[in-house]
Specification:
There is one protein chain. This protein is of the alpha+beta class. The protein has one domain: Acid Proteases (Cathepsin D, subunit A, domain 1), CATH 2.40.70.10. Helices cover 21% and strands 42% of the residues. The strands form two sheets. Strands 3, 4, 5, 6, 7, 8 and 9 form a seven-stranded mixed β-sheet that branches. A four-stranded antiparallel β-sheet has the order 1-2-11-10, with no helix packed on it. The chain is built from four helices and eleven strands; from the N terminus they run H-H-E-E-E-E-E-H-E-E-E-E-H-E-E.
Length: 175
């Protein structure tokens, strides 16, 4: 368990450092651009190994080992990187604009400590976030003041699930 936690912490730290230092290149494009084919393998049937009422959504790891999810927020497609090091759902300013939030009118009153130092965020409320057949409603999120190549699905999303785990290069979300 300790080895898993340390490996997970290292991945989160590397993702944070990568966001701060990369300005271009293949990795940036792979993470920030929606994949040509759907990276998600949705299984909308109960899993025999999960709780009786649990349903699953399975996401294959990308080439760099990251889990990228094509979701819908308030009916608008948004690509997210799953980030257990992020406490909240964090939107890029570009995604926030597409969702109808004007970053010029937002109050960047939140402060977050990251591997790259302190960043500011503006609180927003999401009506619905849909992943496959699964939806969560009335979610707190933040718009990141600093440049961010992709929106993040943090712990405020993951904690509302029945469970999640990583097995054999796949992220398994259960609800």
């Amino acid at each position: 368990m300790l080895a898993w936690a340390l490996r997970h912490l290292a991945v989160v730290a590397l993702v944070g450092i990568g966001f701060a230092t990369l300005r271009g290149g293949d990795w940036w494009q792979q993470v920030s651009a929606p994949p040509a084919r759907a990276p998600n393998i949705a299984r909308n049937t109960p899993d025999a190994t999960a709780a009786d009422d649990a349903w699953q959504y399975v996401v294959e790891a990308g080439p760099e080992g990251h889990f990228v999810i094509a979701a819908e927020v308030n009916g608008v497609p948004v690509t997210f990187l799953v980030d257990t090091g992020a406490s909240e759902i964090v939107l890029t300013t570009a995604d926030a604009r597409r969702l109808g939030f004007d970053p010029r009118r937002l109050e960047f009153s939140q402060r977050f400590r990251t591997a790259n130092g302190e960043v500011r965020g503006a609180p927003v409320r999401l009506r619905e976030l849909r992943v496959g057949q699964f939806s969560l409603y009335d979610l707190d999120a933040s718009v990141n003041a600093a440049p961010l190549p992709i929106s993040l699905l943090g712990m405020s999303f993951l904690d509302r699930l029945h469970g999640y785990r990583v097995e054999d290069g796949r992220l398994i979300l259960e609800w």
